[in-house]
Each structure stands twice: as structure tokens, then as C-alpha cells.
Amino acid sequence: MNYSDYQSEALKQLCDHTFYRFLEEDPTQSFLNKTRTYLQPHGPNEGLSRSTVTTLCPDNFKTLKIYLIPKTHISGNPSRPIVSSIVTPSKESPLP
Q1: What is the pLDDT of residue 86?
Q2: CA dihedral in degrees (77, 83, 84, 88; nearest 10)?
């Protein structure tokens, strides 16, 4: 798959509003602030250790990244979206 085909496939998938929606701004910082605001005072009362609270509220985080892997075993090689959540606020979260 060349770069142009890759971009075209990515846009096609991201424009499918069944699965994705456009966000006006990156919600990562807001999510992290809400998580910290709740967990720092309530975490210990909920049985969470300080280290667990720190793990759930990282200082160095990144926005989720999406990339595509072509399904070479299927005719036309449609792509499967992969979401990388390494070093994101929700990486260690037990929430779905």
C-alpha cells in the first residue's frame, strides 16, 4: 500500500461516524485533570494506594495514536485500525 492509498483509507475509516467523531480539541488534558481531581482526594478512600493514583495520573502522557494495518489475507487488502494507547492517561485505567 503506497502512502496515497494509506491516507485515503485512513480518511475513509475516520469519516465513518458509526465508529469515530470529530473533536474540536484534544480532550487528553481535560480527561487527566478530571481524573486527578477525583483520584487525589478520593483514591485513598476507595482503597487505592498513592502509587496507584500516581500511575493512573501520569505527568508525561501522549494523545492516542491511530494507524492502519492492511489485511493482506483479504482481497483488496482492507485495513484494520490499531489504536496505540502507550503513555496515555487511560493506559492503566481499569475502565473500558
Answers
A1: 66
A2: 170
